[in-house]
Amino acid sequence: MPESKGRKKDDYVPPERTDRKPVKIGSAPWVAPLMVALFIIGLIYIVTFYIAGNDIPIMRDLNPLVNVIIGFAFITGGFVVATRWK
């Protein structure tokens, strides 16, 4: 039986794109320092409240629970910023 002549196809060559931009990998440079700063500020606030809270006028005027919530708010802010870190 004779062999059939198949159609000759050219190999597929995708069109070249010149409008591509490089992908930026990693996080913004301000994310890690802000995250660490918020953690440290929250920790320092809570430790300062427990050590010298009665001597500091602003801390003395606030409810003790409010002072702890302020410290944990800074720490929580650090965790929120940490979600942007890659």
Summarize the SSE layout with pairings:
Elements: H1 31-52, H2 57-61, H3 64-82
Integer-rounded radius of gyration? 30 Å
Return the string of H and E elements. HHH
What level of helicity do the residues show? 40-55%
How many separate helices? 3
Largest beta-sheet characterization = none
In whole angstroms, the N-to-C terminal distance is: 65 Å
List how many beta strands DSSP finds.
0
Low-pLDDT sequence parts: none
What oligomeric state do the depicted chains represent?
Answer: single chain
Proportion of beta-strand residues: under 5%
Give average pLDDT, whole number: 88
Shape: rod-shaped
Q: Structural class given helices, strands, pairing?
A: mainly alpha
